[in-house]
Specification:
By secondary structure, the protein is an alpha+beta fold. The protein is 26% helix and 43% strand. It has one domain (6-181): Alpha-Beta Complex (Cyclic Phosphodiesterase, Chain: A). It has a five-stranded antiparallel sheet with strand order 2-6-5-4-7. A four-stranded antiparallel sheet has the order 3-1-8-9, with helices on one face.
Length: 182
């Protein structure tokens, strides 16, 4: 029996070219600690799934194709934050304010699809964010967060994307598998 090929998969919201450029420009003078995520990888994860075989990917795509994902909306990027906490950050991110309720509802719709195909529930509560960097070992970023005043950047949400995370020579790329318009 052969080994089934596995793909690292997540469902997310890709940033528009304009939102990505505005966010990059507003952060251009900020010294980001840790391993920065390149702007082309910036997105908002609605549901990380992980390793999936091709049949499961097809079931996910079919489920999202049939799901009621809601209407397009605009959310706004607002300020920096950190996980698990700013005093011992392992992830630095840009948070979402306006539109966060709609984003949370969209995440719930995606989770319903994931549950429906038997892939299990997410253990952590959903927090909409754009990851800027992963930090190892953890560092205190409270001063950085307090010192950065990001403008309120509009981020249109008009589709959901199933992404595949692929290791390449220069790091990781997030490649779209399928897009679903709202």
């Amino acid at each position: 029996m052969g080994i089934l090929s596995q793909r690292k998969v997540f469902v997310g919201v890709d940033l528009s070219v304009e939102a990505r450029a505005a966010l990059a420009a507003s952060l251009s003078e900020v010294a980001i600690p840790g391993k920065p995520s390149p702007p082309q990888n910036w997105h908002i994860t609605l549901r990380y799934i992980g390793s999936m075989d091709e049949v499961s990917v097809e079931r996910l795509v079919a489920g999202l194709d049939e799901a009621e994902l809601g209407e397009p909306f605009v959310m706004r990027a607002a300020g920096l934050g950190a996980f698990p906490k700013a005093a011992r950050a392992t992830v630095l991110f840009v948070g979402i304010d306006a539109g966060s309720e709609r984003l949370t509802a969209l995440s719930g719709s995606v989770q319903d699809v994931v549950d429906g195909i038997g892939l299990g529930s997410e253990e952590r509560p959903f927090v909409g964010h754009v990851t800027l960097a992963r930090i190892r070992p953890p560092v205190d970023v409270r001063d950085l967060i307090a010192s950065v005043d990001l403008p309120s950047i509009p981020i249109p949400v008009d589709e959901v994307t199933v992404f595949e995370s692929v290791q390449v020579d220069r790091g990781t790329e997030y490649r779209p598998i399928e897009r679903f318009p709202l």
